[in-house]
## 1
Amino acid sequence: MSMRSQVYQWNSQAGTAAANAQAGTSMSIFIGGFGNNITKPAETTATQFVVIEDVAVSPSAFIYTGYGAGADLYRGLTAGAITTGVAGNRAYIQVRINTTDYFLDPDNVGNDGIPGAASPYPRSINFQPCFNLYPDVYVLPGQVFDALVTFYNQGATGTTILNSGLWAFMKYTLYDGPDALIANKLLEMGISINPGNVDWYKRTLIQSQSAGPMPTA
């Protein structure tokens, strides 16, 4: 197949657990050394084009005074005995292309990225996304791409509870071979790159080649 959807799920407890990772320091979900990793950076070859469509990370939630002293969980998130504060990892996710971060502050300085409260993973009745990755992030041929997770609640990474551990997610479409060439052409034309538009371009080429010659006078 030359066009296929890919998903990557990162779990802080798989492989080398991230319970002892340094809070406030970003880590790659692909090669960061914590959780499940791949053996080399995610990158495109000269004949590939990647469109990143979605990223998400474990959510957090505010706890209000009077919720209930001694509660261990709040909506499935690690809370401990606190009654006011933040339950969960206080995690953020940032997309990086080569050495450039995608999400920036208004003064063009890179930040930690999207908070899990805006783009949660896993998604549930309690945690619905309020952020969509739009426009999609394009990874050109020969580029390295990554997702970096930063968390600030040190104690929330050492649990195996799905909604309380540190999880991240990336969804992207890989265009390979001729489809990568079409993706680059659509980019030059200023047309959004998605499977529907790639198929439209293919049909346009076929129709133009199958059309008969113009009649002569």
## 2
Amino acid sequence: MSNIAKTVVACVAFMALVLGLVFHRIVSPAVLSNAQLAENGLFVYDLPRPVSAFALTDHEGVPFTQERLRGKWSLLFFGYTFCPDICPITLATIRQFDQLLQEADPEAAAELQVAMISVDPQRDTAEKLDAYMGYFDEDYIGVTGQYIDIFNLGRQLNVAFGYTPAENGEYLVNHSGEIVLINPDGEFHGFFKIPHDPEKMLRNFRSVLATW
């Protein structure tokens, strides 16, 4: 092989290496520090917090316990089907984030579960939760149970809620709007702060996955 041919081969190999590195940087998620994540909307604990045992029920009547949070990443949102604004907006945002994740990392999207824990167990029957969650995604889980069990789980996850009387004997439920992030060990990993942005959620979540 002539010197010119060797030079051309070397240049092509070098260019392929550079392009490979560039492509890797494009498709690989940026790894952010916890401080950068917080600035971008996701608070992550330095040490994930354990979640004590709880016993709730999903919209299909199947027990929803701590074991359901193991083996995959979970997004938990505390809301209710009669919510006039923040709940449908938040679930729609989660759906947008989910779709972006499916495009960027289908494998990670397949290992993510989404559940709304009802803060209105008196009105949110399994049937209502089934229909409501189906508006956003058939795989999303609606969860209900006894008030005290929901309250105790919310307290573990720094979620507060309370009731405000409305007209005609009805009531509204005031509740936190954060989206709780549970890691595959079933631990409280952090939470997405409001306001939620699907693209920022994607960037933050992929960063967390890259360092898990």
## 3
Amino acid sequence: MKTKDRILRGALELFNQNAATEVTTNGLARELKMSPGNLYFYYKNKEQIVRELFKSLAHETVLVWKPQAKLAKKNEKIELVDFIDKNLELYWKYRFFHRELYTLRKKDPELSKLWRAHLKKLSRIMIILYSNWVRVGYMQPIKSKNEKEFVGELLFVSSNSFMQFLETADRAPNQRTLEKAKRHLMRMLTPYLCGDIKISFEKYIQ
């Protein structure tokens, strides 16, 4: 494994365990059994490491979303539960970011720009997905523009903040935490669903 990748992997593990705001570059170097100078050769500061991890998060998220958009354009059905599962797996993998989103963005304007660009890209893909879900009978048409924006923003806010809330509630987050988040997201979507997919969601939640 390349040294840069080893640093990122070690940082991700430490950030998830302890919080990125509490981990120092010296502490990270010590954990990786390398000198601080060697770490600084690859990354100038902790902010740069956080940015690189966020770019990986954004890239992996798009890899989950884009295939669904391609299916949507072909009018093919999407496994909605599987789509939720894959997104939650990524939230878990990079949970430190969602847990410390506000603080990290406030400290690093460049990271904040990356985050806003990421949200815009996902919003464009979500429009494609929503249109397909209506066509294949997954969702009811939402005629009000305000209601569409409300549903989209509610899902984004909830999915990006559930880790912060559930981790404080559960103390030691685990797969059960993800299951709880999954049920919350499904419950939020259920009133806007229809047909068999709505029935399957209701059964799952119960």
